[in-house]
Every structure is written in structure tokens, then in C-alpha cells.
Amino acid sequence: MISRIECTNLKRYYKGDGTKTIALKNVNLRFQKGEFTAIIGPSGSGKSTLLSLIGTLDSPSEGVITYDAEEILKKSKGKLADFRFQEIGFIFQQFHLLPTLTALENVLTPLFSRKVPYNKLERAKEVLKQVGLQDKMNSLPSQLSGGQQQRVAIARAIIHKPSWLLADEPTGNLDTETGERIYELLKELNEQEECGVLFVTHDPALAAKANRIITMKDGVVLSDKVGISI
Ligand code: ADP
Ligand code: ADP
Questions:
Q1: What's the gap in Å between 9 CA and the centre of ligand 2?
Q2: pLDDT (tens digit, 9 = 90+) per residue, 185-210?
Q3: How many CB atoms lie within 10 A of CB 35?
Q4: What interface predicted TM-score (ipTM) does this complex get?
Q5: Is 30 left (phi over 0), alpha (psi -120 to 50) or beta?
Q6: Is the overall model pTM greater than 0.90, yes or no?
Q7: Which of 225, 160, 153 is nearest to 195 (CA)?
Q8: Cα end-to-end distance, the chain, whole Å
Q9: Of ligand 2's atoms, which has the minimum distance to the CA of residue 146?
Q10: 48 in ligand 1 pocket by Cβ < 6 Å?
């Protein structure tokens, strides 16, 4: 279980036809597992890029990310996939649920073709209960509200007991009240499961409730502050 992530001189640029977009200019950050960190900043400031890099979905153009002092990105694709499976859960603004599968089946998808030392079906039911959807296990995404669909996505993200939850604008498609409830759920998971949460949001009111607030602008960290910490 990874307890410390360290980003050193992280840069990420994209080259096009004679153009170069700099998504991250130079980022230096450390994260500890128990933390609940909000990442805010205007659109295009590099928040999603940072999360993709930390989640090993993307590689930096320059710089290093270490996980408990190890450079995981140097591993083979298969090893990287295993690392993500063991350590990381992703949640997105678009819930990315498979429309023809029930809530229960959607939650089970990360375990497909994986060997795990527990009963998959029991575990899927357990996480759906944890997110408050025990009565909706057999519903299709189209039969669920936005908040409920995001809860299914959260259950899917935690089914394999990751040590880090990376959430990219998880409340971006939800109304304020539903967004707050999703925030509270992530906070609960952070406290009960002791997983680190990186929570990208546009909403300053939600960000203010985190333990730590990182503000990004134009590919750099503008500020890194202790939050109100509810
Ligand atoms: P944020 O999440 O803060 O909105 P992003 O990390 O998505 O910011 O994007 C940062 C910058 O990098 C933006 O200018 C964006 O257009 C650019 N960018 C992101 N992904 C790509 C890509 N795959 N190809 C080209 N440019 C990209
Ligand atoms: P939650 O509070 O579970 O996160 P919401 O606040 O989005 O979810 O929705 C509150 C309730 O309204 C839901 O539990 C559901 O019964 C109902 N609801 C809202 N939108 C829909 C929808 N598109 N389809 C079915 N039920 C809905």
C-alpha cells in the first residue's frame, strides 16, 4: 500500500503542428495517504493532466513521480496496470458507466479477469451498500439519477480497495446539493478507508472543506494551503 507520492520537476507538454502546449510547467508536490486534497484552478490550468500523471495513465515529458520512493512509471505496461489495480481508484465527471450493465455489474467490471482473495459478488454488494445504493443493485444507469450514477462509479472505484482515490471534477455534472453529498461520501471514504483523496473541483466552497487546497494556474502550483479541515 503506497503511502507517499512525490512529484519532482514535473513537466508535460503536447506537441502539435509546429505548436507546443504546455499543460504542466514545473510541478513539485508531495502527497501523504491520509490527506484529503482539493485541487482548484481555472480550466486549462493542468489539473486533469496532473491527476492522469499521478494515476499513471499518462507519462511526464520531464520530471519524476515516485510512489514510496519507487519510480513506478519505469515498469512494463502489465506491471503498471497491476499497480493501478492495487493502488488507485478513478472517478470522473462523466460517470463512464456501461449503459447495458446493472449497477452491480458495473461495479464488478474492475475485477473482471483478476484474481482476488475475496468473494467478488459479496464485495460488490458491500461497496454498493457503502455508497447507499443497496436498493439499486439491479438498476441500469438510465434508471438512476446523476448522483446515484456517480455513487455507482465511486463503488466501482473502491471495489479493489485502492490506497488512493483520484477524482476529476466528480461533482461537475451534479447540482450543488447532490455534489455536496458526493463530497461527503468521498470524505467518509477518506476517513474510514484511510485512502488519500485528490479531488479536482471548480467549486471553491467544496474545496474550502478539504484538509489541503492546491491552486493551479497555467501549469504551475500557485498556492498550497491548509484548508478549514471539517
Ligand atoms: P484542467 O484540467 O485544469 O482544465 P488540463 O490538464 O485538462 O487542464 O489541460 C492543461 C492544458 O493542456 C490545456 O491547455 C489543454 O488544452 C492542454 N491539453 C491537455 N491534454 C491535451 C492533449 N491530449 N493534447 C494537447 N493538449 C492537451
Ligand atoms: P442522490 O441523492 O442519491 O445522490 P440525487 O440527489 O441526484 O441522488 O437524486 C435524488 C433522488 O431523486 C434520487 O434518489 C432518485 O430517486 C430521484 N431522481 C432524480 N433524478 C432521477 C432520474 N433521472 N431518474 C430516476 N430517479 C431520479
A1: 43
A2: 999 999 998 899 999 998 889 999 99
A3: 16
A4: 0.70
A5: beta
A6: no
A7: 160
A8: 26
A9: 7
A10: yes
